Structures
1.
Amino acid sequence: MLHLLLFITPTLLTCVVSGDSCGQQNVSGAKGGEIILRVPNVKIRKINWVLVQIGDLIVTTEPGGSIDDIDVMTQYRGRVSSDADGSLHIYKLSLQDRGSYKANIKRTSGDDKCVVFNLTVYEPLSPGDIRISPTITRNGSCSLELLCSVDKPDVLITWRKLHGGAINVTQGILYVPPSDVNFTYMCNARNPVSNVSKTVIPEEYCKTGKPPKEEITTEYAQVGGLQCQQENHYGLTQEQQQASTVYSEVQHAKESQQNGNGAPTARPRTQCNGTNAKSS
């Protein structure tokens, strides 16, 4: 019996850097999400944002000012706005947005500064990304080796036994002796923007040689402040439905609305200083 747990960290990350001249900051964002490149808290006249790879100007921002799409680099039109302090807000992130962004900060004092943001964009993991492959040994009893894998880059795989207890894991492969096949184990796959877990009871593999074909899924989503629940039954009998449960919690971001400047307004968000924050 398989159980899925999905925890998606917020797709909007805010990064704050110190006022050091030409500071470097590594930042991460989720594909389809948003990010704020937060500038130091200094008296700013304007900021020229440059895409370092090609040396071209993306846009110029000013504290309290707005952005005219005609002044934005083509590939970012309709996807950027200026925060109140001139920080750059990028929406609808794609894998092509990966790279270095340089903020050339013109201060009112005349003492200019620069900050380089090195942006990495990751694809959020989904429950279907986790694959558990069993190797079964039968010699009067059943023992298994379970390989947990995800076919995406920059993913950390870990195993653990629910309710505690020691486990034997080597390079992502979990060895389960005959005495432990009735326990529940969890494989966790994590990248900087999401965290997915799948639980398994090895005894199911001992019985059939493969995982159950059909499952029930329960999804929870925040929509307009209300928690909505939807259950999907895939050809299961009532007894199977009661015995098999898969949970998937997904934080769905609201669609960005357009503000008066033509750029999406910022959604309610969790801010962090260069780190990922867990959703509630």
2.
Amino acid sequence: MPSFDEALQRAGEFGRFQRRVFLLLRGGLCLTGITFAFLFVGVVFLGTQPDHYWCRGPSAAALAERCGWSPEEEWNRTAPVSRGPEPRERRGRCQRYLLEAANYSAAATSALGCADPLAAFPNRSAPLVPCRGGWRYAQAHSTIVSEFDLVCVNAWMLDLTQAILNLGFLTGAFTLGYAADRYGRIVIYLLSCLGVGVTGVVVAFAPNFPVFVIFRFLQGVFGKGTWMTCFVIVTEIVGSKQRRIVGIVIQMFFTLGIIILPGIAYFIPNWQGIQLAITLPSFLFLLYYWVVPESPRWLITRKKGDKALQILRRIAKCNGKYLSSNYSQITVTDEEVSNPSFLDLVRTPQMRKCTLILMFAWFTSAVVYQGLVMRLGIIGGNLYIDFFISGVVELPGALLILLTIERLGRRLPFAASNIVAGVACLVTAFLPEGIPLLRTTVATLGRLGITMAFEIVYLVNSELYPTTLRNFGVSLCSGLCDFGGIIAPFLLFRLAAVWLELPLIIFGILASICGGLVMLLPETKGIALPETVDDVEKLGSPHSYKCGRNKKTPVSGSHL
């Protein structure tokens, strides 16, 4: 009885049909990578920090209206002068003069004067109070920071907007991942695209911050659904030899989204417009209903053999192949029908070591990658150009991976990319501001390194787990990626408030430790994928290159 992989090989593993689905309309399902990138890093432009703002109390607002002041005049006459080394633009951001106190001062026999409001106070010394609301922003366009006053005592709420998105990713990974296994890949993909579009529109027109946060969380849930199911659909309809390159190409489309995003943000003047621009394309993906079929591999596991066979014959016909009657009954491996648990991943020494290191690697990749991306929004300079360059830098990463992993193996490039990222972060943190070219060059190496590490961890994770635990193991370990994304914004913004370079030091330490740990993983270059836990335990031994090579894949009773 032939296996599904044998039937797919006969129908064509990467023929015209797969290329049409993968590269439809010069992008196909890969376009999902672009829109997911928009969602993943969009906060950099949605939440741009205004350069010039100050606290505006009720008396200052009334006085500005009565005196006909311009914003600059209001700021000069009513904003407190900051103490210490802070620049002039930072004066009065989180404190304001209590001008209302003049109404109760014996010296204030008349209303506050337009020429010098502070003259109503003895020694021109008005009491200072913390600002609790009413900020005024002098900028050309609005962001969520100015829309919802996410500054000073509310600054942590900006961290929350990205953390809540990653919490949505984590929730979506479990809920929609389960739903895709139960109800089908393409159904959940289309529902997720619809969900991203609807929730994204609500986010753009949110009347208040709680509504914004709730629907941004939901957009994260559905966004993760589109990314996961897109990846699964594509990899399940191509042959095993093509899955590696297909996965890397999807990651390249993610990078393409990062390159495109600053152009969108540059030409759209407000955050609502940016939000709509990165959301509305999701509705176009609903057209895939008429083009992309359900995964035949999934249909077989759900005992829907007739439909699976129809799709396989359709694939064969489109690819110029013929699927004979010998393929009327097809089996799947235990990988698709087993019910593993977390204990299976840590029960034996080698499995336990691999699982813990891979979890840390996923966590580190997410924290450092998201941290470096979001840091572009707070370090000054031309955000649009810097962001564009940082995206372009990621493209060589995919090429370097393809050139190195088959020659040097997986472990050395994985470790080197983490160490390069870690050292680059540490060096950048201590380089003086007076040599911007060197700082930019070193920071660019760090971004390239962590991008490579992020892409290699996908590959290494899948190659280090046996067949019956592979899907579950990758899903569980990659969940630490979303957990890292929840922590990253708080780590970046709160530590940067203490010292701008402090987050880089933390990122550098994490990445360097990760680089050392991954050297403890067994090398998988030239080794057949492990099929059992015993195969994994033999990895790294002198006989590991024989592991699993002559074994037949066990099959389950699921067939058609």
3.
Amino acid sequence: MAAQLPLSRLFASLQPGDMMNIAADEQANKPGILIGQKGGREVQDENITISKEIERKTNAYQMDAEVCVVFEQFEKLQDICNMIVEKLDSSVCISSPHFYHTSENMEKLRRQVCLNAVSNARRKAQDVCRLVGQSLGKAIIIREEEMKEWEDQADCVSSSIQHKIKSATIHAASKVSATFEIKGKERNKKNC
């Protein structure tokens, strides 16, 4: 079972004119508002970090801003990147995303894989009971024997997004031992 796509980081550098465009377009004067409003509920304020640097150049001030955003869905990252490039054109520089897994997501993956393994064991036990004319009872013992996690190994040194996603995808497998109670076939008897 493969994990969901990992979290991604987006870095965008904005130029002074861009800051004015964002403020005018979004009725606010912070660059993160563009991402926050477009991103909806998927991009919360705590997932946006903004670093600003103001520098005096001859008779004007130049402000550079770096916006770092954490996404949980790769599609949302792509939508926002496309929107930023459309609005800000060549004045924006968007870095490649950095993929990683949070410890909470890894724990969620491990739990789900173990639950799937137990469900598969129960289904197999039901099939065997049906084959021999019995019915399956409750679980007596369930024990996780082994949990394995692995990442795809990089075949080549490609820097494409698809390759980065594949390299960052975590696979997990769980081996469980389960003992179930076996009940005799219940027959419909009428009371005399």
